Amino acid sequence: MEEASKLEHFMDWATTLGVSDSPDDNQNLNHLDSPCCLGKSLTISYFPNAGGRGLCAVRDLQKGQLILRVPKSALMTSQTLMMNDHKLSISISKFSLSSTQILTVALLNELGKGKCSSWYPYLTQFPSNYDILASFDQFEIQALQLDDAVWAAEKALEKTKMEWESATVIMEELLFKPHYMSFKAWIWASASISSRTMHVPWDAAGCFCPVGDFFNYAAPDEEQVVSEEFRDDGMGVDGEQMDDMSARLTDGVFEDEYDAYCFYARTNYKKGDQVLLSYGTYTNLELLEHYGFILNSNPNDKAYIPLPPNLHSLHSWPKDSLYIHHNGTPSFALLASMRLWATPTHLQKSIRYIAYSGSSISTENEIIVMEWLVKKCNQVLKNLSTSIEEDEVLLSVMEKEFESVMEVKNVLLGLTGESCEFVKVNGLVGDGIGGEMGLTKKTKRSLDKWKLAISWRVKYKRMLHDCILYCTKVINDLSE
Questions:
Q1: What is the pLDDT of residues 159-201, one digit of tens each?
Q2: Using CA atoms in the order 86, 88, 90, 93, what is the torsion angle rounded to 10 degrees?
Q3: CA–CA gap between residue 265 and residue 260 (Å, rounded)
Q4: Long-range contact pairs involving 247-253 (C-beta distance under 8 Å, separation at least 24)
Q5: I need a surface site. Which of 124, 149, 164, 185 has the fewest CB within 10 A?
């Protein structure tokens, strides 16, 4: 009930600041009148298997329609936080900090004011913790298994620590309480910025956008496309209006015309659908690094594998274009460069244009490329400490809601070496530890992050497995 009360208070607060989901054209919407900032286009709902709390359509929405406006005065930025805090503004001006560090310090400073902060109703809606890579401990980082992923997590953690350490002086000058000066608090604030802010042209750190940050993520090209009949069922708009809407950015953007952050429906939605927002094109590892979640089905996911050392000298494609798609097929650049690599040196110059066009060089060449990819993918999978099957068994076990230390020990001890290590690093072994003792918040969070790491590596391994199947089929087809 306390959370419901805080949400109600927040919505009242947002309404007084002018946040509104009222569309440009209010005709035929009088029955949707609401004293709240939501109710004419959107409402808050819960989607247990699709992001949790999010925004739901209260009516049919057309692609390109304006569905939410958040006035500039309601956006929380470094500028607005310093404007109302002279001491903060003076202190920040003395130090050389990045825009993100400034917003992090300003956010923690505001949080420390508690209920005295004018932003308090909004701050109560922030998550109490995040699962971004920078929050992973060493066990959780190693659980990612892949060198690139482990490196990304260690780099994120190191960067966050450096930013925190260099900002300690200003937090001391502002007399932060020890809790708000801690590295744990810094991770929380920087994760809030990483996962919740939206782009604005006047501040590289972005802005916090009340209500606008309730939208859950939709990967580009993954939204359902509603049938053409929907446009002509009486809820449509005329051709001229459709042209105007098509020209708009069908996402979220700050617009000078409205002096507000504006959100547009990025596809057609039926009443009751969850309305989604694309934060951009991300792989699952990037989503985990910046937002703390992964998608079960991500059309933008990629798998990278070690390639021949001399491959990059043969072409001009960037390294990040050489990957395996989420469905297991090699990328255009990977296939083209591998075909060139598999060609005898004295012939490479003469067939370069064929490879660059995306065409196969010859049957023999194509088989060499496919066999190499099969061998490399198998090698990578073999060198990892667990198989897909072992990971999936572990994930199925972790679907259980553990209530006590004894449950965790009974299930995880002896299951795998990794599960035994989890029990040890979380201090769940030893005399006097067990029985019906409940799990601490720290242990529950570690379980969640470990599960995320396993889920991520399973999806990576699946891409390699599917690549093996794809290449094997190509080989078999060419050999017939």
A1: 999 999 999 999 999 999 999 999 999 999 999 999 999 999 9
A2: -140
A3: 16
A4: 248/64, 250/63, 250/64, 251/277, 251/278, 252/198, 252/209, 252/212, 252/215, 252/277, 253/199
A5: 124
